[in-house]
Amino acid sequence: SLSHRWFTLTLLLCSASADDRMPAPSMLRHLTSKIKATGPITVAEYMREVLTNPVTGYYVRNNMLGPDGDFITSPEISQIFGELIGVWIISEWMGAGRPRQLQLVELGPGKGSLAADVLRVFGQLRSVLADASVSLHLVEVSPVLSRIQAQNLTGDRSLEADAEDQPVYRRGETAAGLPVSWYRCLDDVPSVNQVLFTLLFVMVDIDPEKLDQLRFVLAPAPTPASSALVQVDERRSHVEVCTEGGVIVQQLARRVVEDGSAALIADYGHDGTKMDTFRGFKGHQLHDVLSSPGSADLTADVDFSYLRRMAGGGVACLGPVSQRTFLKNMGIDSRLQVLLRNCGDASTRKQLISSYDLLTNAAKMGERFHFFSLLHLSRLAKPRTAEGLKLEKKSPAPLPVAGFTELSFS
């Protein structure tokens, strides 16, 4: 039998919006000093330093979201997005047998918009959740954003930990009394491990002709680890591998097997077809990833075929499906019509339609982002049939997996 725990993982990265922040030369000095001391660094280490260095990291120093930041996420665009994710969570909670504890974990919670929309759906469907105990766990490296999240989700009902080395560096509760906890990294969340990204074979070094600039170089030879990560039938000339991302998918798969949890991953991505997706965003525009490190966001597409291999055969992997397909399967068209019918303000109606188009249009975010899920094998098991003379009741057929199956109305 499944234990009474539940885990939902949401990874959300989006594109950008305008900003003229000055670059952070101290980050460049830090990186060049590091390279001079130890030699070229991996792209994983470069990203880790640029984004999460505790002193000068991009995520630590800035509020990078929204019209005045460098990127904007789907939950910031429309409330409908978060509402449909909330419906997905409840649907999978029901599919798992309505366990007593419903534990939500979100990575990179932005301003808290997604969590707020999900919890609003929970409030509206309180009768469905019955006596389930709900808790929210946010993994956030940016102190700036954590304060914004706390204000949006808990108002003045949160406190920072007394000591900096505490795994939970902030605790609070929502107006409805739901507990909220903040963590700096995923391995601080109970029973979960962190995710980092790396780029195969490529390293970052100082340009010998311009000592104040960085450049990409090839490693002198494939490492045993990198050789093992490339499939024997690989046809691409360049391969990006999220090695430590594979580790967390394995940890998630183990959690799914042991606890009956479910994981939902939403991100830029492809199914083993793309190359060279490492890029920077600044002011809604593409930005040279090695220029002015610390002044722009860095991202790389998720290779979902790699995540599927890392998950193994002990879990059910669904997707990837495009954001357009997922949201339409979740009923975004019907939800939009309800909101439009109840809205008399012309400008608000125009905004609703514009947001819908941005989320679902294939030329915008509709085909850029993809959804991928890990589920317990029992979630999709066929009903048992009676054998011999036993008159056993047939097990109920599993519910369709919301978002990955077209929603039907009866």
UniProtKB/TrEMBL annotation:
<dbReference type="GO" id="GO:0035243">
    <property type="term" value="F:protein-arginine omega-N symmetric methyltransferase activity"/>
</dbReference>
<keyword id="KW-0489">Methyltransferase</keyword>
<dbReference type="InterPro" id="IPR038375">
    <property type="entry name" value="NDUFAF7_sf"/>
</dbReference>
<protein>
    <recommendedName>
        <fullName>Protein arginine methyltransferase NDUFAF7</fullName>
        <ecNumber>2.1.1.320</ecNumber>
    </recommendedName>
</protein>
<comment type="function">
    <text>Arginine methyltransferase involved in the assembly or stability of mitochondrial NADH:ubiquinone oxidoreductase complex (complex I).</text>
</comment>
<dbReference type="GO" id="GO:0032981">
    <property type="term" value="P:mitochondrial respiratory chain complex I assembly"/>
</dbReference>
<dbReference type="InterPro" id="IPR029063">
    <property type="entry name" value="SAM-dependent_MTases_sf"/>
</dbReference>
<dbReference type="InterPro" id="IPR003788">
    <property type="entry name" value="NDUFAF7"/>
</dbReference>
<dbReference type="GO" id="GO:0005739">
    <property type="term" value="C:mitochondrion"/>
</dbReference>
<keyword id="KW-0732">Signal</keyword>
<comment type="similarity">
    <text>Belongs to the NDUFAF7 family.</text>
</comment>
<dbReference type="Pfam" id="PF02636">
    <property type="entry name" value="Methyltransf_28"/>
</dbReference>
<dbReference type="GO" id="GO:0032259">
    <property type="term" value="P:methylation"/>
</dbReference>
<feature type="signal peptide">
    <location>
        <begin position="1"/>
        <end position="18"/>
    </location>
</feature>
<keyword id="KW-0496">Mitochondrion</keyword>
<keyword id="KW-0808">Transferase</keyword>
